[in-house]
Amino acid sequence: MGSLQLQSVRKSFGPVDVLKGIDLDVEDGEFVIFVGPSGCGKSTLLRIIAGLEDTTSGSIRIDGAEVSAVPPARRGIAMVFQSYALYPHLTVKDNMGLGLKQAGTAKAVIEERVRKASAMLSLEKYLDRRPAELSGGQRQRVAIGRAIVREPKLFLFDEPLSNLDAALRVHMRLEIARLHRELKATMIYVTHDQVEAMTLADKIVVLDGGVIQQVGSPMELYNRPANLFVAGFIGSPAMNFVEAARLGDGGAKTLGIRPEHIALSRESGEWEGKVIHVEHLGADTIVYLESDRVGLLTVRLFGEHHYAPGDTVHATPAAGQVHRFGADGRAIH
Amino acid sequence: MSKARTSLSRTTVVHLALIAYTLISVFPVFLTLINSVKSRNAIFRNPMQLPTAETFDLVGYTTVLGQGDFATYFQNSLIVTVVAIALVLLFGAMAAFALSEYRFRGNTLMGLYLALGIMIPIRLGTVAILQGMVATGLVNTLTALVLVYTAQGIPLAVFILSEFMKTVSDDLKNAGRIDGLSEYAIFFRLVLPLVRPAMATVAVFTMIPIWNDLWFPLILAPSEATKTVTLGAQIFIGQFVTNWNAVLAALSLAIFPVLVLYLLFSRQLIRGITSGAVK
Fold first, then answer.
1. CATH number of B69-270: 1.10.3720.10, 1.10.10.60, 3.40.190.10, 3.30.1540.10?
2. If interface means Cβ-Cβ distance under 8 Å, which residues of chain B face chain A?
3. What is the pTM of this model?
């Protein structure tokens, strides 16, 4: 129903190159998430796919058809925006139906599709309200409903959950995951929140500086980051990086060890260090320690542990969980 | 009102200042109104006195209304003002939308060029305007006045409206584009309703100078059929004798239509329909 191919897509604003040649294949029914720090070009890329920005060069194909010169409304896409972007003067029902009405769809069909979408999102009670009379979560559901009603080939989400509070965000995340299962539609989702990316995606695209750093399933990115950027970006708390030379590893430039792959002990271990700060999260305890051998380390322990700043501890990396990176920042496998 | 942020002395000072200003601005209007219903002698002897049983006299109003042409003058003023406001709002908003929404070469320059109109009074160009109107045969038509006032109002309208249009969410316009609305539909159906309060502000600022103007009606359309109220009132001001009753009555009458228009627009100023569009 909806596949997408991007071929060397470039975008410049004046002298600034925002996207420096993006190649990407999205299969039908996939849930693809673009992540990256702010300014990495992920939103621009999404807007280019939507047709809200023109490409400087490159080709975009939706279902095999070149759409670079097709206006947004005829690309067969639907988009959900961060700020909801509901039409303030229209009711929920008219908000959802406007796109179809513009396309000249028959009234009965619009009714039926709005009914189906609102049932899916439990919005039936609100169909005659205006956006001002809805809460943030309800507004975002209407925005998603407006996308569903169009029955698009591609769903585009531009940081849809960023305006919601933490509890609602988790709830909407589940809802979006459920929708993806039910609709079996192709979805492209932009976020800077790696938890959203890890939990929702079939495939994550990590972007930085207008270049794709790595494409892969969440676990591929976690277990086999292609380079230093991806290694540091995916995972929270961030991966510890240690100069390889300090540990006598001549073949690599940098070694990376995830905080959860380090064991702590008061008695013995590879690296001795002093605890400088401890964060108790209940399920996890995050220990920050300063060691002469490897510098600052973050260690994530599961459950409650009673370390205090000033304690002397020994850290040991788990065998086989050390990532090695060469001088160019690429992973060495 | 919370006590923490207001003190009696501050409130008093603020209110005194506001009351003083109100008195100063309302006083001339008040004087015009009371004297318009007094006899000629009373106007000169006791201009500050309220009309009493002896001095009450509607001769000014009977003169003005009996003149017969005043209905036409009012009609002319209304036509010119309303059409000019409509054109200023329409074209001003369109220009403002283009300047704030689209990136094109010369965008900033165009904005500055339009802003120049705020700084340079249009009256400097009167001679050229008159020549133009003569050449196009528009002298002594309301069209001439409408055109001039539209030109006069557009710079301020563009200036104010483009600032407001920048605040309209991009996401909303993009949602419209994805839903297949044309750029015109986005402008008329999404953006204009959201900047309605700003439009009302512009309408009020545009309307008052147009209604009160004497200069252009005198120069461009002094014929009997095209006189506006302010120009019409001048027939009572002579070189040697001025019919003050009639002048004051005419001016008092001239206040009301503009007051009605103002009330109409100020309702829009207050009504906020923007909430709920974006978070």
1. 1.10.3720.10
2. 169, 171-172, 174-181, 189-190, 193-194, 273-279
3. 0.80
